[in-house]
UniProtKB/TrEMBL annotation, chains A, B:
Organism: Catellatospora chokoriensis
Full protein name: Probable phosphoketolase
EC number: 4.1.2.-
Matches recorded under PANTHER family: PHOSPHOKETOLASE-RELATED
InterPro entries referenced in this protein's UniProt entry, alphabetically: Phosphoketolase, THDP-binding, Transketo_C/PFOR_II, Xul5P/Fru6P_PKetolase, Xul5P/Fru6P_PKetolase_C, Xul5P/Fru6P_PKetolase_CS, Xul5P/Fru6P_PKetolase_N, Xul5P/Fru6P_PKetolase_ThDP_BS
Gene Ontology molecular function: aldehyde-lyase activity; magnesium ion binding
Entry-linked Gene3D superfamilies: 3.40.50.920, 3.40.50.970
Keyword RNA-binding among record annotations: no
All copies of domain Xylulose 5-phosphate/Fructose 6-phosphate phosphoketolase N-terminal, residue ranges: 14-372
Cofactors, names only: thiamine diphosphate
Length: 788, 788
């Protein structure tokens, strides 16, 4: 079993020369960025003071990235093919910076880094230098939607970008180190979800340069047979480009890119003509070139080019060691800069004159600055989907009706997708299947339902792939929703980190336009995983996201169906945030009518006067955040009203968790005076919270009266049991909340001793009852809230 | 390209009959667990009250799991082959419970669930029932090391278990849903790290039952050609077992298991005779049988068997709907229980008489209760590795010397491994390469270093795979260390959750013996990722782990090389914890001699009287947790001593972060009186912390004097810059700490206004200097702490 080898030598002498010149120029500029802080054109002899004192960067992957960028330029120029470049090996930052400078986009975005000697000097100096630019492909890099600092997400980002962009080619360079990661390994199967009619194409380019920091890569040490089998098994037709002689590799790579672009065009042509009968085997490229190619072959007697020693900075002592300095000068001169740049430092026409122009330049692709392309979603008025307060409703099912109509209203614009690991229906958003299918481009059988090559719901049992697709989709200016089990969204914790970092930096860059928010609907949440048990019970994702920059984080805990509608509408309109919505899918009471819900969500938190009468001066505040805690707090308020009618109880509900933080910490933070008016400064507050209780303390420790705050929440006690037993195990049940009130309101301990004991007995009765019957007490199952 | 098909029909009529009987018995018992709370033997007509009111469980995967368990029993009995069973589809809990009950281990572990009608009644009732057992394969299940609730880790767990157990076969059932996850996809390449000489064998069994909750699986819809290519590409020789006729499948599966066991024996034989010249292509099995096989074919007019509708509970209304109830009775009777159990409910000899005995029963394998096998590590006295206080030392390099000798001292016992994503050397633990190599069983070239098929260092660029290997290794009673970049350990957040949950539950089970702790060395940490930039800067893993049960979590922030030695020794001796050690790899001062280090680590936190004189009554407390914060606090103390000699400054250092919590919250919590004596109750405390500052508040909000606590830490400001600039950007530099002191000590604002301005100016000077030179100010680089 062998990879395909493209035939022919399509480059004439002149084209070959200019391609090689461009590659050398990119390599020269890359090396210059890593090493030099002065003397960029080497017009003077290279001196130690021209070399940066701290040498930071990654050379190893860079010549390969430069080679690919150069050759893709040829394809784009020849075919007018709109193309994006995704750099899996993000450490190769200097390469992308070099290429965008050569094509002119860098100087357009950053005019002070002009295409002349002065600009080149700044280009070199700023790289990995204080006050300059990061060492990786970063938000600061024009043409990028992908940092590649944390490896694994290039290919899912590429697919996300290609969705609904039928004319776009996304060239995705995958490092062979990155290819060892789980997220990357899973994302190969994305090709079963790509629609050759309505979506663009992804061209995976596996860059087998053979080494990580200190080890060979696994894929580089497979036999060609095994590697071919693997890539074929992933559904691709692999082409091999291998070599270490530039001329040979230039010809082979050019022939290969011609071949794969022709094949992609043929696949799309036949699909769009309705002639494709089965899933195409999309072409891909395996590029096997030496790590650190064209760099020093040996340093200090040890081999460097073609080994892991080329990973970072091959001449690490260039400033202090005369031999290293001389080698650096020789290395840079080996690219023959005088053939590449004029005396002023501008790239010569034979180097850059043939490059694509305008938005066809990969650094200038509007898709890579998605905010420039974004179109607001058409959002049907969610108020029309509200349900009556009182009867049980399944909040996510109610939301599903609206989401269906959002999907339908935007169908023509092809700019909205839902992703999730096989849970759209089980999370009760199934109504959306009335108007679109589930993307699927693999075999089907008669009993299948809703599978559709053109479907806009993307389901794969890989949270990583879902997240990567959605990020790629958002970063290129479209909208989406990720519906996920609450416990398992932790699988993408680190991806969320990286996206939050991306957003944080892009918000500081004027030229980066705001993109649609990353919207999570976390359902099947901790309190209603009583059937799946302990492994499925974890509310810690909220804790995880609130560590990120306040500017980009929003957390909503709508207590019922109507508030969920209001929150979801808000999230789908927003930009540049990570919105976390936590909502139940089980039948639950609706507390507010739709107008009350809007008002409540607008405030973000508030007193529910209809639930308890505090006479304007409460003895105790019962607060809740989350649907299940809200129910328990209301039930506790009912119990207190019945049993201790003279006790003035205030009920507070929190939808927008960030309102709890001081204004200094979060833009949504409630002013202290408002906080004090709601929570009081001196009365006990018993707070029932959806997640780990200490988060509420972490958000409020600077608030007045914090010493009177007592929080109940999930304290990591769970198993397969009844819904109410989950509450009892974590001491957040209505009976325990009543006990907490009795224990905390001054003077109540003696007066309400009987009630307290009755509550203890109720908990015991509950435990005995469920062990006998397997169900919660009827009074629990049948409880509904009282509106005063 | 086709999968292999084993030839022959090895089962005689009698053996076929008993195998089928055993399978039917396991299926009967599985269905009984899901549905019944009484009438287990169906001796009475089935009535609604016999059926549980809440039907919770997953039938779909169970018949396949039962089939495999049954056939593996045959192999074990015939060959005396020590075997473990890993259940990737952990939702199939009832199957594993059924099988261990049939083989007798269940009743040995839980005597009240005896092998008779009464015991069977309890077996059924307890499943997914309050006070009973979880619905998944869980810690409560004998013979399990793997829950399978969160999918993706079965295969890496299997490899971890097989390491250094040369006689063990680990049969690993991988669900085709699970196979879509990233962690699982990555772990296929584990076979390049398995030593056929010193390690046991892993037999992956891909169970292609075709469906997830609501969708087909990707792998089930590949062509056979593609699937064969994929599995071959993963390095396996795949055998196909396909069918829906029990007799045919029994014969084919038996023949296949004979074939693969013969092949495994041949590979191991030739490797152990020194005759293996290249990496073997280990056999694996693809089992393609219907989802919910032998269950209802149709329910309510819709197909169930062989579709996703068989995923959970096929007859969801068995208690309320007479048709469903009758179908349930028919379904259970279809297994012919009267041929399987005697009148007392005991399994008949023809069903279980042929099963393996004693520890060869998979439910009784001591490897699956690793604490029974664990041997303490031989730990050389770490004090001998201590360095002199003062000069710069690289803490992880100092640790590396000791780790090398730990590795050597335990070489004969083959019970210690290091895992990490390609970072053992870059994290400066390279000394260990003097005594062992890096596991590698793929191609090598001349320039490779330290690769060794028998190596005990496991490096792959997949944190998931590293974590899975190590968990499998620990759960089977061995020891290990995971060295990882701090930012990227978030990649395994969700795996850590699941392991913490496992530990929490096993600690509540007497029969589960304590296992070695999961030890993380997080280095290349947030403050010294100045070269890699923002994407590599995230200290939030600590926040993540402290949400787990206090009983299983320990976090250490040793400030220097000697304290790191002491902490590491402690962690490697411990059991049943998740230990997080955060330590630097860059040259840094050593503050304490080794004896002081031991004393300090024993206390977990303490006053450093040598660093500042507070006269027993400080005006301010400067506290630090973490190596870089410690340096800044000491430098700030130096500045204050020089500039404000009359100010009484106390310096406190925290190694064991959990000491900060109240005793009620964590077993390591310091008693309030001791806390007060160290931190005071009324003086300002300026606390420099390694991570996100609010964590310190979350740990201390119940402490006296919390309102005087002011914490500096990482507030998500980072980029590629100098080490000191990272501190300045996050306001944790020495100059800012001095400002914080001046702003908080009553009366100092006016008195020290000049100093305050000087500190502001210093920060400005710093910024200008680094932008000019690319390096920190010489006074920063050259600073060393003063011992009074």
């Amino acid at each position: 079993m062998n990879m395909h080898i493209a035939q022919g030598a399509p480059l004439g002498a002149q084209e070959l020369a200019r391609i090689d010149a461009h590659w050398r120029a990119a390599n020269y500029l890359s090396v210059g960025q890593i090493y030099l802080m002065a003397n960029p054109l080497l017009t003077q002899p290279l001196l130690p003071e021209h070399v940066k004192p701290r040498l930071l960067g990654h050379w190893g992957t860079t010549p390969g990235l430069n080679l690919l960028y150069t050759h893709l330029n040829r394809i784009i120029a020849a075919r007018g093919q709109e193309t994006m470049y995704i750099t899996g090996p993000g450490h190769g930052g200097p390469g992308l910076v070099a290429n965008t400078w050569l094509e002119g986009t860098y100087s357009e975005v950053y005019p002070h880094v002009s295409q002349d000697e002065r600009g080149m000097g700044r280009l070199f100096r700023q790289f990995s230098f204080p006050g300059g630019i990061p060492s990786h492909v970063a938000p600061e890099t024009p043409g990028s939607i992908h940092e590649g600092g944390e490896l694994g997400y290039s290919l899912s980002h590429a697919y996300g970008a290609a969705l609904d962009n039928p004319d776009l080619l996304v060239a995705c360079v995958i490092g062979d180190g990155e290819a060892e990661t789980g997220p990357l390994a899973a994302s190969w199967h994305s090709n079963k979800f790509l629609d050759p009619v309505g979506d663009g194409a992804v061209l995976p380019i596996l860059h087998l340069n053979g080494y990580k920091i200190a080890n060979p890569t696994v894929l580089a040490r497979l036999s060609d047979d095994e590697l071919t089998a693997l890539l074929t098994g992933y559904g691709h037709k692999p082409y091999l480009v291998e070599g270490d002689d530039p001329t040979t590799v230039h010809q082979l790579l050019a022939a290969t890119l011609d071949a794969v672009c022709d094949e992609i065009a043929a696949i799309q042509g036949s699909a769009r003509a309705g002639e494709l009968t089965e899933r195409p085997h999309w072409p891909m490229i395996v590029l096997r070139t030496p790590k650190g190619w064209t760099g020093p072959k040996q340093v200090d007697g040890l081999p460097v080019e073609g080994t892991w020693r080329a990973h970072q900075v091959p001449l690490s002592a260039a400033r202090d060691d005369t031999d290293h300095l001389a080698m650096l000068a020789d290395w840079m001169r080996s690219y023959r800069p005088d053939e590449l740049f004029d005396a002023n430092g501008a790239p010569l026409p034979e180097v850059v004159g043939w490059l694509p122009a305008g938005q066809l330049r990969m650094g200038a692709s509007p898709h890579t600055n998605g905010g420039r392309l974004v179109r607001d979603l058409e959002l049907p008025d969610f108020r029309a989907y509200g349900v009556k307060p009182g009867p049980l409703a399944e909040p996510t099912r109610v939301l599903g009706g609206w989401v269906r109509d959002v999907m339908a209203a935007n169908a023509a614009y092809r700019n909205f997708r839902i992703v999730g690991p096989d849970e759209t229906e089980s999370n009760r958003l199934g109504a959306v299947l009335d108007v679109t299918g589930k993307a699927w481009h693999a075999r089907t059988v008669d009993t299948d339902l809703h599978l559709d090559p053109h479907g806009r719901i993307m389901e794969i049992l890989s949270e990583h792939t879902c997240q990567g697709w959605l990020e790629g989709y958002l970063l290129t200016g479209r909208h989406g929703l990720f519906s996920c089990y609450e416990a398992f969204v932790h699988i993408v914790d680190s991806m969320v980190n990286q996206h939050a970092k991306w957003l944080k930096v892009t918000r500081e860059l004027d030229w980066r336009k705001p993109i649609p928010s990353l919207n999570y609907l976390l359902t099947s949440h901790v309190w209603r995983q009583d059937h799946n048990g302990f492994s499925h019970q974890d509310p810690g994702f909220i804790d995880h996201v609130v560590n990120k920059k306040a500017d980009v984080i929003r957390v909503y805990l709508p207590p019922d169906a109507n508030t969920l509608l209001s929150v979801a509408d808000h999230c789908l309109r927003s930009r540049d945030y990570i919105n976390v919505m936590v909502a139940g899918k089980q039948p639950a009471p609706t507390f507010l009518d739709i107008d009350e819900a809007v008002a409540h969500c607008t405030r973000g938190l508030g007193i529910w006067a209809w639930a308890a009468d505090d006479g304007g001066d409460p003895d105790v505040v019962l607060a809740a955040a989350g649907d299940v805690p809200t129910m328990e707090v209301l039930a506790a308020a009912d119990l207190l009203r019945e049993q201790l009618p003279e006790l003035r109880v205030r009920v507070v509900n929190v939808v927008d968790l960030m309102r709890l933080q001081p204004q200094t910490e979060h833009p949504h933070g409630l002013p202290d005076a408002e906080y004090d008016a709601i929570f009081t400064t001196d009365r006990p507050v018993v707070f029932a919270y959806h997640g780990y209780p200490w988060l509420i303390h972490r958000l409020t420790y600077r608030r007045h009266g914090h010493e009177h705050l007592h929080v109940r929440g999930y304290k990591e006690e769970g198993t397969t049991t009844t819904p109410f037993d989950m509450l009892v195990r974590n001491d957040m049940d209505r009976f325990h909340l009543v006990i907490d009130v009795i224990d905390r309101v001054p003077g109540l301990a003696r007066k309400a001793a009987g009630l307290r004991q009755a509550m203890v007995d109720k908990r015991t009765e509950h435990t005995a009852y469920i062990r006998q019957t397997g169900q919660d007490l009827p009074e629990i199952r049948d409880w509904t809230p009282t509106r005063r």
